[in-house]
Amino acid sequence: MPKERILIVDDEEDILELVRFHLAREGYQLTLAATGEEALKKTKLDAFDLIVLDLMLPGLDGLEVAKALKADARTKRVPIVMLTAKGEDADVVSGLEIGADDYITKPFSPRVLTARVKAVLRRRAKAPLDDAQIITIHELEIHPGRRTVLAGGKPVDLTYTEFQLLALLTRRPGWVFTRAQIVDSVRGSDYPVTDRSVDVQVVGLRKKLGAFGHYIETVRGVGYRFKEKP
User: Where in the chain is the domain with CATH 3.40.50.2300?
Assistant: First the structure.
């Protein structure tokens, strides 16, 4: 079952409970917020894989929350699924322009909500790396375009799969990837591989990284993540 962390933001208690109930059935880890201010506070305390965000919120509205999230380096890559009322077409356009990934119009079907959430999470897990963007974290320097890795200033020779795995984890430090997500991202959904194969790749990658290998953490029963803080 999926273990991704989702923040649900809505000031209507019945909607909040409806979304929570149906996403909980899918196995997601859920956090709730009733205001925009509360949502932003919670994103500073925890890392989320997706945010379900109502646009009509008291105080700081959904669009302002989305702007704040996209302006923050820590949350700018977190996908947002907006909840909107009918007749809010202009707000939908504004939200998508800000960087929201999808929207659902109220009243909505729980099945549609679940399907949209799953689709957005799949797309984000498979999102290609920017080959020109160098990833730098914990004395590691990963260059997707050149496919080179420096650990403490020294080059590390990785296989294709090991490099893809490392780039995936370091692109979103602190976030947990399931083995299925790793397989989809590294080789594609049609690649015949088992959970054990992923584990073997991780063991090899840790060994090659030497003193830096411990940054790849095992999340028991779920998958792997790259440690966010030293």
Answer: 5-125
Neighbouring residues of 9: CB distance < 8 A, sequence distance ≥ 6: 32, 33, 34, 35, 36, 38, 39, 51, 52, 53, 54, 57, 62, 65
What pTM, to 2 d.p., does this model score? 0.60
Cβ(62)–Cβ(95) below 8 Å: yes
Could you tell me where in the chain the CATH 1.10.10.10 domains are found? Answer: 135-226
Q: Which CATH architecture has domain 135-226?
A: Orthogonal Bundle (1.10)
Express each pLDDT in 64-107 by its tens digit.
999 999 888 778 888 999 998 865 677 777 888 888 888 888 88
For the domain spanning 5-125, the CATH number is 3.40.50.2300
Can you read off the two tokens belonging to residue 45? 């305390």
CB 6 within 8 A of CB 26: no
For 30-61, what is each residue's pLDDT tens digit?
A: 999 999 999 999 998 888 989 999 999 999 99
Nearest to 46 by CA among 5, 10, 14: 5
Cβ pair 117, 2 in contact under 8 A: no
- Asked whether the beta carbons of 224 and 176 are under 8 A apart, the reply is yes
Q: Which helix (H) or strand (E) holds 202?
A: helix 195-209
Q: Parallel, antiparallel, or unpaired for β 140-143 and 135-137?
A: antiparallel
